[in-house]
Amino acid sequence: MAKLLTETNTPAVEKRVRSDARAQLQIPAKHLRTIFEHDQWWVEDARNGAQWSVCDTNIGVFDFEQVTIGEDR
Asked: Residues 21, 28: contact at Cβ < 8 Å?
């Protein structure tokens, strides 16, 4: 069985994750953190600690499921 893109730790996939996250979540590039942990990609907003799990879709872009809301800092 082929790996999903969200399970693939390469610079090319990270670039796509960052691009889709900036567009969909409206996080400025300087505050966007991408993390590959537990065999999948995660996104974090460094301004408040909010985190999203990166999800594969069948339409060629990533989707993001928020797992922590974050806090005001």
From this structure: no
